[in-house]
Design a protein that fits this description.
By secondary structure, the protein is of the alpha/beta class. Helix content is 49%, strand content 20%.
Length: 434
């Protein structure tokens, strides 16, 4: 070991992390510039005993060493002249430094998202009441993958799951998860996307505090549901997602419960519609029976009115014939009397009688013509006054439902039904106003 650096604290980013079969841990510690380029690098090693102690220390804080992680470590520098290799022998790691870096980045990311107005954008998207078409973003074959799918399969519902494979920890997690999220706009028919993993340490979940992943969630065209397996801390991905659950199983149960709730709601609507339809049909049947009864009653009234009209026509015909016979007898009697008196007067008075007879004959003929014309007129009037001919000329007879003739507005009331007899058939009406 070089004596000039017996023990120093060094800050850098872990790369090429690898554990040997003997329990030693090898990695590179690098320093990056403003453009993320490497400006310094040194090989590092933590021997087995130190490695075990460091690992236990970090696990107590919910951390572990991983590629891409910033650490502050203490150790000495070893130099091997034969190989010309310089390496840092790590004795301790400061867990508080790593947590502080993660928390600082988390707060900076949250502040940037808040300033851009992106937090809450995904929650504004409506989640389908029947989210059966799901895009699943996780590592294929992982425990989270199987836990989520087993819940959906056990439900017996017709879920359709499209897997978008992505690493959910390590240096590739940020790129692969954001890439999967960015493919969502190109997918059609997707109700929501589910982002899950099976829990882990604070370091394992560091990718889900990434600003790149958070912005991809905010820009997603469908609701994003998360289940990252961590029941204590909520990642930034949880904060910007539509709905955050604690585990992949909980996300699956949420989707199943939502579909079953919609299924039950639809069943209740169907039951209400069936009941309403039955009531409507029953009411319509009762109304039809009532209308049939009223129609039969109206038919009986029409038949009764026709019988009364026929009787009236018969009475009018008999009365007209009797009066015509009386007028004929009167005319014949008058003619007989005139014929008997004319010769007697002619004989007694001579020429005067002839003249008078001639005048009487003339007057008699005139009176007979007038009487005959009057009788003809009365006969024509009787024919014209016959009810059927009156109806044929466009007139009608209106009666109440009880059969009484309607002679004025006082005979009916608003809302009552009236029956109008025509030359051909009848009309049934309802009175709106007087």
């Amino acid at each position: 070991m070089a004596q000039g650096f017996p023990s120093i604290w060094v800050v850098g980013e872990i790369q090429r992390l690898k554990a040997s079969q003997r329990g030693h841990l090898y990695f590179e510690l690098v320093e990056k510039g403003e453009r993320d380029e490497i400006v310094g690098k040194i090989d590092a090693v933590a021997w087995r005993s130190d490695h075990q102690r460091i690992r236990h220390l970090l696990e107590e804080q919910g951390q572990h060493l991983a590629d891409g992680q910033q650490i502050r470590c203490r150790g000495g520098v070893d130099f091997y002249p034969a190989g010309g290799r310089l390496q840092l022998v790590v004795r301790d790691v400061d867990p508080v430094f790593t947590l502080g870096m993660l928390e600082r980045r988390r707060r900076e990311t949250l502040a940037a998202l808040e300033a851009a107005g992106k937090i809450g954008l995904n929650r504004k998207l409506p989640l389908s009441p029947i989210p059966l078409s799901v895009a699943l973003i996780t590592s294929q074959g992982s425990a989270a993958y199987h836990d989520f799918l087993s819940v959906l399969e056990a439900s017996g519902l017709a879920f359709s799951v499209l897997l978008l494979h992505a690493a959910v920890q390590g240096k590739e997690a940020e790129r692969e998860i954001s890439s999967a999220l960015n493919t969502l706009p190109a997918l059609s028919g997707i109700d929501c996307a589910v982002l899950i993993r099976g829990g882990g340490s604070r370091s394992d979940l560091a990718a889900f505090d990434s600003r790149v992943i958070a912005e991809a969630i905010c820009a997603a065209p469908v609701p994003i549901l998360t289940g990252l397996g961590h029941e204590i801390d909520r990642s930034i991905a949880d904060l910007v997602a539509h709905t955050a659950s604690t585990t992949p199983t909980k996300v699956g149960e949420l989707l199943v419960d939502r579909v079953r709730s919609s299924e039950q709601h639809l069943a209740e609507i169907g039951t209400r519609l069936e009941r309403s339809a039955r009531r409507t049909l029953t009411d319509a049947w009762h109304a039809l029976e009532a209308a049939t009864f009223r129609a039969r009653a109206a038919a009986d009234q029409v038949r009764s009115a026709r019988r009364r009209m026929s009787q009236l026509v018969a009475n009018l015909r008999a009365s007209s014939l009797a009066r015509l016979g009386s007028e004929e007898r009167r005319r014949a009697d008058l003619g007989a009397r005139l014929a008997w008196s004319a010769p007697r007067r002619l004989a007694s008075r001579g020429a005067q009688a002839v003249q008078l007879g001639t005048e009487i004959a003339r007057l008699a003929k005139s009176q007979l013509r007038g009487t005959h014309a009057m009788l003809e007129e009365r006969a024509r009037l009787c024919r014209d006054l016959e009810p059927r001919r009156t109806l044929a000329r466009g007139f009608s007879i209106t009666r109440t439902e009880g059969g009484s003739a309607v002679r004025g507005t006082r005979d009916v009331e608003p809302g009552s039904r009236i029956v109008t007899e025509l030359a051909h058939g009848q009309l049934i009406s309802r009175v709106e106003e007087e």
